[in-house]
Write a structure and sequence with these properties.
Strand order of the largest sheet: 1-2-3
Largest sheet: 3 strands, antiparallel
Number of domains: 1
Distance between the termini: 27 Å
Radius of gyration: 19 Å
Oligomer: single chain
Helix content: 40-55%
Order of helices and strands: HEEHHEEEHH
Number of helices: 5
Shape: flat
Length: about 140
């Protein structure tokens, strides 16, 4: 009789895998050819991602509770605020990059620079967002 070793669910810990990160090579927005620009990312199951989402949600809830106690109207989020929050989340999940030249100058990695790039170049933001959400980038099958 052939007994297989049972699967240890700890080997499928998505948080551990997402915390290790992944290097994404950006692709040209039209041709999809690799462009030699690399972005290091944490995944949607990472501690950083989840902590940031929790903090943002708690801040919103706290603000709503304060406004409610003061009989103030609850602020309705604008699309600009939602977009800015999404850019902030992508930027905190970016840990480094290389090969980035923007407007004729080498741009070193900082969270502020990531916010600038993601805010101004939606095709990059879309690739980064997709990569962060794709568990296959962080875990082997």
């Amino acid at each position: 009789m052939n007994k297989q070793t049972p699967l240890d669910l700890a080997d499928l810990n998505t948080t551990t895998a997402a915390d290790k990160g992944f290097e994404l090579e950006l692709q040209h927005p039209v041709t999809k050819a690799p462009i030699g620009v690399f972005v290091n990312l944490l995944g949607k199951d990472s501690t950083v991602f989840r902590d940031h989402v929790r903090k943002s949600a708690n801040d919103r809830l706290r603000k709503q509770a304060i406004n409610s106690r003061r009989n103030k109207e609850v602020e309705t989020p604008t699309i600009e605020k939602i977009e800015a929050d999404a850019i902030d989340l992508l930027a905190v999940c970016t840990t480094d990059w290389r090969g980035v030249t923007y407007k004729g100058a080498t741009m070193p990695f900082t969270v502020a620079n990531a916010k600038t790039i993601y805010g101004e170049l939606t095709w990059i933001r879309e690739q980064v967002d997709e990569a962060i959400g794709d568990l296959e980038n962080f875990m082997p099958a």
